[in-house]
Structures are given as C-alpha cells and as structure tokens.
Amino acid sequence: MKRTLPAALLALSLAVVAGCDGSGGGGDADQANAATGPITIWLSNNQEELAWGKAMVESWNGQHADQKITAQEIPAGKSSEEVIGAAITAGNAPCLIWNTAPAAIPQFQKQGGLVALDSFDGGAQYIADRTGDTAEQYKSPDGKFYQLPWKSNPVRIIYNKDIFAKAGLDPEKPALATYDEFLTAARKIKSSGAAQAAIYPAPSSEFFQSWFDFYPLFAAETDGNQLVKDNKAQFNTPQGQAVAGFWKTLYDEGLAPKEMYNGDSFADKKAAMAIVGPWAIKVYGDKVKWGTVPVPTSTGKPADQIKTFSDAKNVAMYSACQNRATAWEVIKFATSQEQDGKLLDATGQMPLRKDLQTAYPDYFSKNAAYTPFAEQAARTVEVPNVPNSVAIWQAFRDAYSESVIFGKTPVADAFTGAAEKVDQLASGS
Amino acid sequence: MRRWPNVVRYFLLFLGALIFLFPFYYMLIGSLQSSPDTSVKGAFPTSGLTLDNYKDINERVDLLGSLVNSGIFTGGVLLGTVVFGTVAGYALARLQWRGRGVLFALVLLVQVIPFQLLLIPLYVLIVRGYGLADNYLGMILPFAINTTAVFVFRQFFLQLPDDLFAAARLDGAGEVRILWSVALPLVRPALLTAVLLTFIGPWNEFLWPFLVTKDADLQPLAVSLANYISNVSARAANPFGAILAGACVLAAPAVALFIAFQRQFISSDIGSGVKG
Amino acid sequence: MTTAAPAATKRNRAAGLLGRHPVGMILAAPYAVYLAVIFAYPFGFSVWMSFHDYFFAAPGAVVDHPFVGLDNYKAALTDPAVGQAFKNIVIFLVINVPLTTGLALVLAVALNRVVHARTFLRVSFYVPYVTASVAVVGVWLFLFNSGGLVNSLLGPLAPDPSWLVNEGWAMPVIAFFVTWKQLGFFILLYLAALQNVPNALYEQASVDGANGWQKFWSVTVPAVRSSTALVVILALITGANLFTEPYLLTGGGGPNGASASPVLIMYQRGIQQGEPDFAAALGVILVLGTLVVAYINRRFIEGRD
C-alpha cells in the first residue's frame, strides 16, 4: 500500500491543480465591462516614464476615491513580455500595462489575454480621433483594437559632430542621404581614425534587434512597407536586398563591428553614428555634440518623404481585469491632451496623436531639437500585426545575422529561406 | 628534498589564484572609473577613481530593503534544505525502505530537468493554484529543498564507512539517533558545502522572484540590481562603470558572507579530525 | 524463508513490504511530497504538452489543444537550430567536463596540503562560484571583446574575429568561463571528500616508496572515485542546462547560433515565441539525452568496483 504513496501524491497534486484550472475564468465580459472599482496597472521602470505615471496615478486617485489605481513597475527591457505572458496564463495580469510592445500583441491576443477596446462605447472612435490614420497599423487581423497606440519613438540617424569634424566631414550638413554618401562618410570616419566604428547597431541575435538596423531603412526604402503584408514576407524583394546589401557593405568593410558592445557605443564615442529615437535627446544631452538626419535611402529621397520605424509602445487592457469600465476611463484620462503633454514634457517621447506639433506648440518652440522627431512621427511604420509575430522576427533575424552580419551565406539564399518560413508563420500555421 | 615541489606548488597555486581573482579586481577597478579604459594601463589606474557609480545605484535602488528580502528568501531555502534535505539524503544513502529507488530516480530526474521547462506551469501552479503571488513563500517554494544538496548529502553519507553504522546499530542505537549523533557530525564539511551550494541559488536567482513579485518592496537584491543593470544603468554617467558597480554590490555580500563562513569551514574540518 | 521461526517471518514480511528501515520513509517523506508538488506536476504537464498542440492561454479563454502525437518531437529534431545547439553543447561538454574534473581534483589536493595563506588561496578559487553570472559576465565581455584587455595583451596573436564573435571560439570561451565560474564548488566537493581519505593509506604508500605523483594516482584518485562520479555528473548536468552564459555573454547564442544551447532555444521558442509545445518536446529530448549520458558515466566511473 505504501508503495503507491508517490503515485497518490502525484494524483493529489494533479487534482488540486486541475480543480483550480476549472474554476478559473474571467467572469462575464459584459458585466466586467460595466464594472467600476479599484484597478492595478503596470508601468515601465524607465525613470522618466515612471515619474509621469506616478503623477498621472496620483491625479486620477485624487478625483476618484472609490476607483483607486495601484501602480507597479515592470522592467522596460528584454524580460517584460515573458512576465506579461506568464501573468496572463496565471490570471493575475493587471488591468492595464503602459508599455505593451506591439510585436507581442498577437501572442497575448491568441492567449485570450486581451480585451478588445472596441467593446467599449466609442472605443474605436476614440482611437481614430486621437491617432488618425496611423492607428490603422495597430488593428489586429480580426479588425479590432487590442491596443491603444500610445507613444512612438520614431528613429533617425544621430551623429557626433566632433567626430565628423575630425574626419573632415561637414558637421552641420553632412551628406548622408544616399547609401553611397553614407558609405563614403563611414569610410572617411574609419580611415581617418576619428572613431572606431562609423555606426554600431547591436549585432546580436535577439528578435527585436532588426528594428534598429534593417527595419527603419526598409521602411524608408519601400515608402512604408511592413515586414509582412497580406501574409507574405516583403523583405525578399529588390528593395529589401538593397537595404541588406547596404548593411552588408558596412559589416564587410569593418565600418560596423560584428561584436556586441556592452554599453552605449555612441555615448562612449566609439561610434560616430547611431539609430535612435527622441529619447536620445535627454540621454546624450550635453555629453555629445550631436545632430540628426533621417535614415538613408538608396536614391536619397527628400527628407520629408522618408518613413521610418516607429518603436511605439502602447496601452493594452488585460482580460483578468474585473473593473473594466474604470480601466477604460483611466485609458482615456491618461491619453488626454493634457496627460499626453505631460508625457511629452517628461520623457520626450512622442504621443501617438495626429496633431502633435499643433497640439503642443510651446513645447516644440522651446525644444527645437525634438521637432525633426515630431515631424518624423507622422511618417512611421509599425511592426506587422500578424500571428507568430515574434517567431517571424526571430526567423528574419537569424537569416540576417547569417548573411548580412557574418556573411556565411549569400543574402539572396538566406532571405529566400527566411521568406518561406515567414510566409508559413504569418498564415498562422 | 621536499622543498622544491612545495615551492612549485605555492607558485602555481598563487598564479591560479591571481588568474581567478583578476576579473574581480578588474570589476572593482572598472566600477570606480569615471570612464572605461580597456588598455593594459587602464587596469592599473593611478588616478581618476570615483564613487559616483555607487552613488547612482544608491539613488535608484533600495539597497537595504532588497538585502533584507534576499536574506529572507535565501534563509527560507537554507532552512528547508538543511532540515528536510539532510534527513532525505540520509534515508536515501543509509536506510533500506520501499520506494527508495523510485525517490532516488526522481532526485536524478529533477536535477536533469532545466528550470526553464517548468517555469510557466510552475508559475501557474504557485500563483493560481496556491495564490502565492507577491509572497515570500511563493518565492521560496520552488527552491525550498535543493535537490543537488540532497544528492550531495547522499553522496557523503554513502562515503562513511559501513562499520561505523554496524557498530552503532549493534549498540542498539535507533536510526534517527545514528543520524543525529554519528552520521551528521562526520559529514560537517559536506553540510557546509551543501549550505554554500544552496545559498548561491536563491541569492543569485533573478527570473523566478522577479516573476512572482511585482511589488518592488518584496524584491531581492539580485532582482533590483539586474533591473538596474539592464534598464537604468544606460542612463548613468558611465554606463559600463554603473553595470560593474551593480555587479560589485551584488557580489559583495555573498563574498563577505562566504569569507566569514570559510573560516568556519576550515576550523571545522581541522577540528572534527575525521579519521576514517 | 520457509525455515524461519514465525516471529522472524513476520518481521521479514514487514521488511518485504516497507523495507528494512521503514523510518527512512518518514525521513524522506517531506522531500518526496515536495518533489511531487513542485516538480512532478509541472514536469508531467510539460510531457503532456509535448504531445499536444498547446499554448498558454488565459484562465477564461476557450481553446482547443488537440493531440498531435510526435509532431512536436519531429519539429524539434528536424530544426537546424536545434541540431546546431546540440552540437554546441557537445563541444562545451568535451571541454568543460574533463577540465573541471581534472583541475578541481588537482587543485583540491594541492590546497588540502597548503599550510600558508590557506584562507586566501581557497577563497580566491571559490569567489567566482559565489558570484552571480549577471555580475561577472560584464567583466568577461570587457576582457574578451576585440579592444579588450586580453587582446591588448596578445597583440597580433589575438584571434580575428575576436573571441566572442568568432564561430570557432565562442563556445570554448563559454566553456572556459563556466569552468572558471564553477570550479570552486567542485574543489569544495573534493576537499570534503579528501578529509575522509585515511592517512594510513598514504603512510603505507610512503613505506612502499611511492613519490608524490604515484601517491596521487594510486591513493587519492581511487579514494575519491565516488566524488569524481558526483563531480562528473553535476558538471554534465549544469553543462547540459547551459543557459545564462549564451543568453548574456553572446547576446542570445551568437555569433550566428554558434553558441546557442538547447535550453536557450527552449526559452526563445517556449517563452518568447509562444510555442511551449515545441519547447516541451525539446526539453524532454534534452532530459532523456542527459539521463542517458549521466547513466553511462555513472556506470563507467562508479561501476568498476
């Protein structure tokens, strides 16, 4: 009889868990949609964002004694998607997360972890009114919004004026519009010894790294194509290969190092250029004398036509939320013109509003450095909202790493292979 | 005749020790520099050292609170392992009972399973099944009895000579008494090895406590500092120095405790005078 | 058995049912319960998952998890990235396990007889083990990057591309890193075992005229054999479960997958990319593989008696 002890224990523990599995569930959605009361939200632990978030919560709580918000921090970096995924599965996700990456939305949605914001009265309308046409990119394949487009960090090329001067390049109006111009400048930087690297994107293989090397240039080159369109990979095209060829030249000639840099290569003056969003202005502030230009294109398109990667972070409501009416009100409160202005003020990140520059004229006249980024914010491309989004980016990154960075296989072969895989993933299999 | 090998031995040991310690020396130096210097000369700076990197951490991380949390987390695991792990190791090594083979097979199996495989099912179990989110118990539970330590205990109990146990049994001592007064004193060094081994796990564990606690007041040092290292340090005046300073702060208590504990270890293995 | 007296038969029967020392069951019970609750369920669940089309869903969501037989295993075994990862881990083990075992034993024997600077020497070898990988990885990056100290010292001898981006060197550097990091623990295991080696054996060997090396080979090595088995198995297991180092040191298994490990792929596929079924299958394959290798080693080292 004792022999069965371990088996009995196993059965018991299974039963306990199974019982809990069955009893879970978010309750009636309609009821939850109408319910008000206290809610929990997660904020990113980026210093400035956190300060904004805490102030926002305080001002909400001051007006709503019976619907208080409790705010907690989650890391802004690598592991935040894992944390959210686990919390969805365990049913203890908060009501709102103020830093949900668009690339993670398809997976969270598939998990049944998100609440469609269209299910609130005027939800879709609110998003359309606030963000304008750009909002379309954030719609899921089923036509619903599972995220509110919140803020973007449209990326541009930032360059170090001192290094450029040292390399004999014009520090005020550098010629960086075409690939040839860019490469000429890069070679000069390297050969003059002004900096160790012309540009230094992370050469590592995390799925998201392509957002800061290939993707912005791809967006510019194709006038706004996403990586995947209509379930088909878009990178295995002449434009995609032109972008890849450009980066490959940089790597082959040692103008961009193949090695990870532990730290900030631009701040440490190891690299003369970097691809950054407006957050960089606060970070590099007075440490570096810098200027910015749009990302290059093969033909040197005019600056006011160039599209780029948005690097947006959004707000999503999670299905574990009980008091969804309150959560929806909080979303609207925190993305009001007033709160968006405060966010802009505190972080320099661009609220995803259609009338950004006219809404905050004072800010942009006082902070001229942000204006190019604000202009750029009107022309951004998001990651495609398709199934298996992260797996697609990883497949692409692997092919890119193999062919462009390390030159093990010809770009055409690697991209063809990756495109097949991506087509399959995007169609949801 | 014996002197020459002795000199060689000391020379090689010191050389090895220097190689082992050098990265730590470099870490300390890097954390004190105001800007990184990778040249050979940079490893032996004569000036330009500052504490700014540490000041920056202190402003962003509640060091004392995190330290207390680390202490509770690690202490809980140590307690569980020492109390339940030793007796289990003893039962597995020295006693014949039904199910011993099954349990030992499980011990092997558990060690071989990568934690990443269990991560989410375990999280669901502990958070949803037992409701232990934002709770020290939830943090401790997956590590509560360190299986490698059980394995080490078993191994050391096995190494004790059989005659000892036969003699004690002949004297009519019960099994629990034999464990307490014969076996345990003899495996003191192993006990300390296992304590050290157990200590390292929770002290340095990042992913699990971080998943379980969203409340910053409950987070152990490794979590606060890993957060600092991955997210905040890039904004410091010298990001690399800030990372290394974070590393030093995380390493310092463990190393300090270990040095204190090491004395204990040496005196015990001299003092116990194990014969054989 | 039939010849025994009635009382003895009774005891024998009890012994047959519970074993000779039923108290062992009580002593081991808390641990057994702990294993069942904390490990058996999630592991059983992972095995189940590996035979189904599964993903983690929110509590209320209604999703279908059809049985797919061995599909996940097929997918895992035919994935080139997985093959590469297993190859990498073999390279890792071939370097790491012998190096760890040999160095740990030699250093433990040397340290055991040290009289001067005992604490300093021991602590120096243990310190890497005590420190979190998160903390020391930064320094290694600093030391081994192309402009780092190691290359400055080596000058023209430095490999090109540099260590961590060189497909041939990335895995060996990780293997050396892990050896450096873990060695202190294994030295400690050996030191504890050496305390139990009877002095009489050494004295006998001296009488027989053995020199230092001969004593090491003929007395020490056989005497600590069971610890060697432990060291080899533990080194093997930690090696097979390698994750943190490629995750942190080579930016997710770079260059170009040359330092990816099976657990890293499991983490990427299962937790980042939402394919826990694939990851579970890979995990089960890894567990089986490790068990087989561990078993062979055990036989080989312990079973020669």
Automatic annotation (TrEMBL), chain A:
Residues 1-18 form the signal peptide. Keywords: Signal, Transport. SUPFAM superfamilies: Periplasmic binding protein-like II. Gene3D superfamilies: Periplasmic binding protein-like II. It comes from the Bacteria. The keyword Transport applies. InterPro entries: SBP. The keyword Signal applies. Belongs to the bacterial solute-binding protein 1 family. This is Sugar ABC transporter substrate-binding protein. It comes from Paractinoplanes aksuensis.
UniProtKB/TrEMBL annotation, chain B:
It is found in: Cell membrane. InterPro entries: MetI-like (IPR000515), MetI-like_sf (IPR035906). It comes from the Bacteria. It comes from Paractinoplanes aksuensis. Keywords: Cell membrane, Membrane, Transmembrane, Transmembrane helix, Transport. Residues 67-261 form the ABC transmembrane type-1 domain. Belongs to the binding-protein-dependent transport system permease family. Pfam families: BPD_transp_1. The chain crosses the membrane at residues 7-28, 72-93, 102-124, 136-157, 178-200, 240-261. This is Carbohydrate ABC transporter permease. It is a multi-pass membrane protein. Its main location: membrane.
TrEMBL record, chain C:
The chain crosses the membrane at residues 21-43, 89-111, 123-143, 169-192, 223-243, 278-296. It is found in: Cell membrane. Residues 86-297 form the ABC transmembrane type-1 domain. Coiled coil: none annotated. InterPro entries: ABC_transporter_permease, MetI-like, MetI-like_sf. The keyword Metal-binding does not apply. Belongs to the binding-protein-dependent transport system permease family. It is a multi-pass membrane protein. It holds the Pfam family BPD_transp_1. Keywords: Cell membrane, Membrane, Transmembrane, Transmembrane helix, Transport. This is Sugar ABC transporter permease. CDD domains: TM_PBP2. Its main location: membrane.
